[in-house]
Amino acid sequence: MINLFLRAKHWQIFVLTFVLPLAVHIGFMVYIFSKMIYTVQPNPQEFIGFFYYIPFISFLFMGLLFGWYYSLTIGLQNKLPSGMIMKVNRFKIFMAIPFIYILAISMFLTSILSAVSAEGVPDFSMVGIFMLLVIPLHFFSIFCIIYIMYFTAKTIKSVELQRRAEFSDYIGEFFLLWFSFIGVWFIQPKVNKFLNNRNTYSDDDILA
Fold first, then answer.
1. Which of 162, 151, 153 is nearest to 84 (CA)?
2. Could you tell me the pLDDT band of residue 200, with boundaries at 50, 70 and 90?
């Protein structure tokens, strides 16, 4: 999987991480609004049912974007300058935190929608407790995402410069990763060029 991301063309990554999620969400909303407009007596329960899928769709496409970040970071470790070692275990842990957060939010929204669809009233005291727990996790997830982009940008620039890059060196890559729908057009060709400097490349290399 890592190798597929690394060897993909910029337009392929763009379609996977931006065009496809956008098209799915637009299609989803168009379908809902068309049902509301053209149905004489729309059933609210039917619309509530559709919203069950939104968190899981977001989870899937977030996985594609983070899969690209992960592949760039882990897949280029063997391209770093000799003697340079990066703390990839911390990176992997921080990569998992936003997914745990999204999963928790998805489960919470599903429980709320289940209560509403059953014509019940959610326990607002439990909602308050949940929010108190989620708010710190939300901000920590933001920190983790920033760290992921920082770590990935540093990896890319260190490979390019063949020395340990300073933040002033890779601040451009950092913002290109932040605005990935633009950055993919600049970063992915660079990664393809890194790989073309070798005759062979395999997943066994990056896991060694």
1. 162
2. very low
